[in-house]
Amino acid sequence: MSVAEYLPDGLRRFVRFLRDEIQAYPGRANVMLRCVLASALVITASMALQVPFLAVSLIVVFYVTQSNVVMTRLIGVLFMLGSTLAVGSAILVIKFTYDFPLLRILLAAALFFASVYMMRVAKIGVVFFLVALVVIYVQTFVDLTDQPEVLVRIALWVWVATNYPIVVTLLINTLLLPAEPVRQLESTMLGQLKALDACLADVERGAPAADAPRARDIQSGMLALQKLLRFSTMRDAGYRRRRAFHLARVTTVSRLYAAAGQLRNMATGLPDGSASALREACDELGRSIRSGERFVVPDALNGTADLALPGPLEEMRNGLNAFAHRSAAPESMESKEEKERLLVPDASTNPVYAQFALKTLLAVMIGYVLYIGCDWQGIHTVMLTCLIVAQPSLGATAQRSLLRIGGAAVGSGIALAMVVWVVPHIDDIVGLLMISLPVMALGAWVAAGSERISYAGVQIMFTFALSLLEHFGPTTDLTEIRDRMIGIVLGVGISTIVHATLWPEAEGEALRQRLARLLHGLAGRLRGLGADEPAPVALWVELGDCEAVAARVAVEPGWRMAEGQSEGFTMHVQTMLAQTREILLAVDALEAERRAQAREGVAPEASAWREAVGASLDAYAVDLTEHAHAVRSPAAVSLDALVTQLAPNAAQSPSDTARLAHQRLLDRARNLAYQVSRLPAWGTARADMPLTIEVSQA
């Protein structure tokens, strides 16, 4: 029994969450190290040279430091471009409108509106985010002085405080050799092949593959390979030129890894030498990945061509053979690189983008009037918060708001403790670094994690820096900590009310439609629609996207719905997503087994049953879209017809191997039918009325 068994439930869940985060993001320690080192240099330089806006410099360090060199340099260049454009725009606004307050506010508002609009429709939205942030931030200084030269100097210092940390961060990342995406991709593929080899080794010994990947492991593995492939094509010209080949290789590894998930109970009834031949072929694939040479199927795997392998092993053999043929294809088969559009396709026709910009501008102006009317300069963060938490949907806005408040509360609490108990006892840069760098490390560790918590890490660091590092000497003023937290809370409240009241962009309906498309895709894959069959990787990617949307929907403001309705919808959607993951794995297993036993004449007879299960999924998807508040249970598809169809073949088969093959197919079908039957129903009017599907006996 582990020590965790004796911990309270809340603490045990937190420990489990930390363990999952560490396992899911093994490279975050390297990111944290680079963030801390760059932050130490920036703090020292800013304090020694008295460069203002140290908190802005540190947040730039956090944003530019990424997990691989491609994203680090790309974001660094975009930040330089955005800050230059932003400071130039702010200076022009001051130059022409300083003596005309109303005109100044109107011009700044127009620039802000255009920037937020471009933030939604442009591929390089971060550039326009910086423009909007700086243009509106500079307005907070106008009322502090009657000297326009001072405002220009402040704007220029903002440019310095933004750009010199970029240079420092790029230098640190270059010296510490951040992971190249090509190497990360190869390392991830080799890691999945190593896990596959361990599973095959267990099967070869006749033992269950206890460490076979679960459905979530398969999903996260596929998504990680797809993301790293995209970064690799951005970084390496050779990858861009041979994009089709590398996509085929990534798909093959994902196919093998998914098949490994079906080996958990595959321990008996295997042809001699089949597992060892597959292990040798996977080793050869690993060598080809490391060396960059073409993949050639080993003779041992060719010797299994006439063996009736179980479905998972047949899937592996087919995948390896298919990639061997693709590896031998000439260079002329490679596709040309497609140029991406700068703007989204509906940038000029979809009114949602202009509505979003108008909502954000309204929230910012309310915050501006509030803190100017109260003559409370310390809460100017209300304006910045209204922009920072503005996201394309209600759920994303609420999620960002919670992370901002939570991270700011932690950072302010740490800063408060430091000001009261530690700052009075330090008087040099060494002491300042000793109290600051642990907080930088905490923020960097959180920021390098999943998207669910990463923004909170940035807020921990930024709020701490605003409270403690904005002066060139020890500070004992606690009112700044209080004022900034009040500004953040007010900004979150204003932004949430405005976005939820004016043209709310709720994602609940869009999530239902995406779930329905995913289920239709599953039904199409089950039927085997030839060229129109959705790729398994595409289905896993769509499932991951649905999970991300569901996480945002879960935190959407619920006062617009009936009491309990939002929570019930979220619970059912989470159940449906978890069950869909199991169905996708079961469909892959059944398809692999069906193809493996095609030579036994099983596939034609099983097609009617597969068609019935596909029809059940289609009907459930239609019900999901047409009856959002009362979804019926999916049709229960009986196995009797399939058993009847397979019985003559099983009786006529002289060998135990063939009979075992039929039994494996029945087991796969039974598991699929069970997983489909567990899709949830909800609502009161129709939830107890299951869909009915007729199973053809032909």
UniProtKB/TrEMBL annotation:
Keyword ATP-binding appears in the UniProt entry: no
Membrane topology designation: Multi-pass membrane protein
Domain Integral membrane bound transporter: 363-497
Compartments in which it is found: Cell membrane
GO cellular component, one term: plasma membrane
Transmembrane segments: 36-62, 74-94, 100-117, 124-142, 154-177, 352-372, 402-423, 429-448, 455-473, 485-504
Keywords: Cell membrane, Membrane, Transmembrane, Transmembrane helix
A Pfam family annotated for this UniProt entry: FUSC_2
Cited InterPro entries: Memb_transporter_dom
Family designation: Belongs to the YccS/YhfK family.
Protein name per its UniProtKB record: FUSC family protein
